[in-house]
Amino acid sequence: MNVIWGNLPVILGGLALTIQYSIVAIILMVVIGLIAALMRLSKLAPLRWVASTYVEMFRSTPLLVQLFFIVLGLPAILPVNQWFGQLMYPILAAALTLSLNEGAYVTEIIRAGILGVDRGQKEAALSVGMTDLQTMRYIVLPQAFKRMIPPLVNQAAQTIKDTSLLAPVGVAELVYKGEIVIAATFASFTIWALVAALYFIIIFSVSKCSAYLERRLQVDKR
Hints:
The chain is mainly α.
């Protein structure tokens, strides 16, 4: 307990960073996923091709490899450290890579949600003079998002867990801070147990939120 209390501020500082990265990544992944999903459903073939390439590329390679490539590999061929700063670039690149990776999965969630809306409602909206954009904004997306909330919350939980992969590329977060404390105290079992408990509290809370939303938003039972 002395080890825990003595190093708790460091661990909680890492937890705060993990939450910050998670919030940024979750917001960006929804925005990226929505744009990519609309591109995949577009009537323009080039947009569909670009979106499909993005989804397959990020879903078919491990997140850790993507982080190593963008955070550590890209500076070898481009002066990105000079553009963004040597200390700031790894943080920005890691957050963006995490968002792009999670956004590829969100793309499929949103696309499936949009395709799940009854086609007759789209045709009815168009028949009363609404444009494709108005139909998507006012008719399709509100119903689709109601169905998508539970899987989106689950993906958000996965995003929080995936922030632990930022440590190997040198970005400070909960795992990174835990490694620093372990290097100073050699109390690996105690610190990793504390880190695991903090992750469990966050993920369990998000999972319970997802279960609650799933019960509240059972469209088929209304």
